[in-house]
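Archive entry. Fields below.
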Amino acid sequence: MNDMTPVKLTPKDWETDQEVRWCPGCGDYAILKAVQRTLPDIGATPENTVFVSGIGCSSRFPYYVESYGFHTIHGRAPAVATGVKLANPALDVWIVTGDGDGLSIGGNHTMHILRRNLDCQILLFNNEIYGLTKGQYSPTSREGTKSPSTPFGSVDHPAKPAALALGSGARFVGRGFDVSKNLPDVLKAAHAHKGAAFVEIFQNCIVYNKDVFADFTEKKNADEGQLWLEQGKPMLFAKGAKGIALDKEKLTLKVVEVVDGDWEAAGVIVHDVTNRSVAHMLVEMPFGAFPMALGVLYDDPVPTFESAIVAQNELAAKGKVPDLQKLVSQGQTWTVGKGGPEL
Amino acid sequence: MATAALDPITSATTDASPEAVVVRFAGDSGDGMQLTGGQFTLSTALAGNDLATFPDFPAEIRAPQGTLFGVSAFQINFGSTDITTAGDAPDVLVAMNPAALKTNVKDLKPGGLIIADSGEFNDRNLAKAKYDANPLEDDSLAKWQLLSFDISKLTMESVKEFGLGNKEALRCKNMWTLGLALWMFDRDRQPIIDWLKDKFAKAPVLADANIAALNAGHAYGETAEIGGAGLGLKQLNIAAAPAPEGLYRTVTGAESISLGLVAGAQLASLPMFFGGYPITPASAILHHLSRLKEYGVTTFQAEDEIAAIASAIGASYAGSLGITSSSGPGIALKGEAIGLAIMTELPLVIVNSQRGGPSTGLPTKTEQSDLYQAVYGRNGDAPMPVIAARSPADAFDCAIEAVRIAVEYMTPVMLLTDGYIANAAEPWKVPDMSGYTPFPVTFLDKAQEGGFLPYGRDEKLKRPWVKPGTPGLMHRIGGIEKALNTGHIEYSPANHQAMTELRRDKVLGIANDIPDQDVELGQKGGKLAIVGWGSTFGPIYQAVRRARAKGLDVSHIHLRHIWPMPKNLGDLLKSYEKVLVPEMNTGQLKTVLRDQYLVDAKPLNKVSGQPFRIAEIEAAIEEQLT
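PREDICTED_STRUCTURE:
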């Protein structure tokens, strides 16, 4: 040990002096705690950490984390974060967004930050509702959602955040929910992934969309409703009594019964986080007929956007000496002397 | 108000060598007229003439061949005196097809010279140009001098030996025409030949063919029998314009803005981050900057206009100089983000290359109609400094000034230019960079005395710039109203009042830090002031010069700082009996001046997508003074 060894921070060190202003009982509190528990474990330093958010309940997040924070404008956090990271690739950039912010007004930026693969963590709090504007249906609301703007029920088909992320080219897709004890593990995996790591976090809006995820988040529904994926482990749920197998005829997933723990005989798939085809099936798995796939669904890093930009900038500048006088004197020039102009 | 009076001073195609000549090359958008014009410009600059150009091209990349809307033109005004506009009416029109003749000949001076490619005046092209009869063969062009010959055929013959296909051979037509033009004005071909060799380095046969066409056009002027009957080509020798000694180059506004932004970032000791999205006529700035990595420039082509500015704001937050650029429609999309930069008090330069509006408007035509948008176009009380460039060369200094104000006041700054400045070229005396005073930025790296205040202020009301990565100074910023000094979220009425006033006063205070408004031509006080901004500089300057030469009491004032305005401007304007404001909009600066100073400023407006003619402004001056 020497005096350069940093003192290990605690969750408390990541709290600000600002009063947290979410509704009492909001799922955001639990997510905040999970993040504040995760940050010390991954060795993050407050001065090199930047939380960037858009607009919405979730986007107040940066005010409550003792790091650098930028609460930007609706939907644009990925674009602001791109500028932050390109200007200083050493910064650890976290984006906090919601289903409205990240998939509706800012859907375009979400798509592009994922395909470019900027090294950052994108936490999308999905509560299937617009909370801050008092309860209108959102792009992830289920068909028939009654809200102030859809008194007779919404008629549009909901977006699937994880499917959209994967379709946009994401190299990391994770899922968790606000009060889950596993959420910090998902966040750690997202942070460990070099590149854009997309994490959908189901979040309970207790005022406008209460318990909309209770079918799998509540304790009594956990066994049948949650499929926690682990690298190299069979996809089992219901205390190991059921598993996910490949229907080789239809090329889809199916639920199979596992008898006496013999999952291999039942054809249960072993989770390989680098298998993009299976990841596509997992994010499309309809809840109800299937459990909710949670944990790290996909994790297969490729070179990041900012590293490619830095490398190209360096290569393009290699051997060139910046010289303003030379720069302004470029192009076809001529000299005016006493005898007039000459080349 | 616009009149179409002809220019009484510049007159060419007389036997005496004129002071200035205006030539317009017009052809199909596939004929390479912009290239011809660009190279002719270079040769003109090398001949020592002062010059100004006006490229005028269609919005369509390749409009259907031969159509009226597919005509692309390039006008150049050059002479032995001070040239500040592309010229009112051409003395010479080169028309490569019937459509080019039809759309341009009405602008030609009476007695002016038409050079037409008769090879293109076939039935098909005549029909496309909606000519009932061949104008080269009836007397419809009688008030001009007409020289028509089969340039297409002559070009084909000149490149026969290179075995090119028909289409490729005909592509050399523009070089043939350029060769003829070079002969007409006694220009050296060598720089063009060098340029062609360089351009076609990978296809030497194309270089050789183009050079052959260039030489053939030149030889045609020299030897062919095209005189007679008092009609024909004469070689004109325009004397060099007197110019201060030094190194010169031609520069377009897009180039000079790019160079100025790089220089500004260097003077501020900052890396530059440029977030852009393709839009006409602003894209050229993105193109130029993306080649200058060795100057610490990172360029980012974003997914949309909003991401372009948002990324620049993110970069400024992280300690780079954030810059974005667009044209009116894109600036409209950036509006909310500009407000964020104002609220978070981060430096940012926003370049607006204005074009005809509203909406998509006239993408390739020029207008100055975004002044309201620049000064007022945001939600809330959102003050922002605005600077306007008057010419391609002036844009260099304006860009540096925009950077200086942005970093010295922690504010977004809008730099206004327009399609005319962006595309037009003029000779530029290369500046001596050692003459520019650096303004290096200092980042706050430890708490101020008494504790860290992210929204604490200095005597200029500037808040500190703190880079993420700085230990001990973690803080949060955002678009929500913040408390004085601490920057925490704060909604209280008194605080919002105070913060709104602070933001206003900070920007107004910049008036203490910019030069007093000077008078370009004339003097303080008198009968009439012509007040302009931006690219109307050239025609206003020339019109006032001519009016003063006639003994009229008129002065020219040209604003660079649109917001805040120079401190003495009110007094200055009130020293004249009348104030006339020519603008390529329906009276935007006029309204701001009336609002700020209660002066009876009168508008002179033109929104045709074309720059003012000198004569239009001259006529307006005379009308005001009689």
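CURATOR_NOTE: Chain B touches chain A through 78 residues (CB under 8 Å).
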